[in-house]
Amino acid sequence: MGFRYLNRVASAENIKEFLELADLASGGADDAGNVFELSRRLTGNPMMRCLRRLQQDPDAAALIQSRKLCGPYDVAAMKQLPKGSLGWTYAMVMEALGYDIDFFPDPAFYNNLEGEGDYVNYRVYATHDLHHILSGYSLDNFGEVGVISISVGQFSFPGFSFLNLVGLMLSFFETDKADEDYVNIEEYANSIGYNFDLMTQGMEMGIRAKPLFPMIWEERMAQNLEELRAELGIEPVREGPYSWYSNTTITATLA
Asked: pTM surpassing 0.70?
């Protein structure tokens, strides 16, 4: 049968590693540290694929070589930037939600960025919340699948690719309901249909957009957000539970 190819990949070692990583992924909603650790442990072929894609872009290759650090960000200073700018919006949204704008592991967590993969992991998480601002995807469980799929579409980031795979797998076992049977968004957000649609949408956004990984965001903080989106080819999601524009606390803060 055609399924015999599974014998080549379903080795005891591969299954053991998959189960350990899946355990980290499934606990990511309760502790973001699990997700950081997942990415740190995903090396080998998954990271090599990611690096090959990134190094096709001279700007991304140069950034990886430079090991340029991100932040820390000064929220008070960013709030003084022009209203509607990337930095102003970023600071206001994070403050409205009560989130730490510098919530990402420091270089020491990623082996002090000794390897190229270490730096990619660091940079992805250090800029992740900016991708939320750019894309419009909410900073909660409703929009997370969409925003992480941007990086999957652009450069096959292994940590987020694995989260997507495990997310679909868990949704598959979650319930016996069909998509049309859900009566509230909280339940539907855990469905395989919701997750698959958001993954597809996020990956398409990433494929259409200009490369985001090599962007030096500190140089763009004062730029108008809508102008920056147009330059990057990003049409943000502005409606639905997976958009931060649907959060009345955020929209009131930005008004």
From this structure: yes
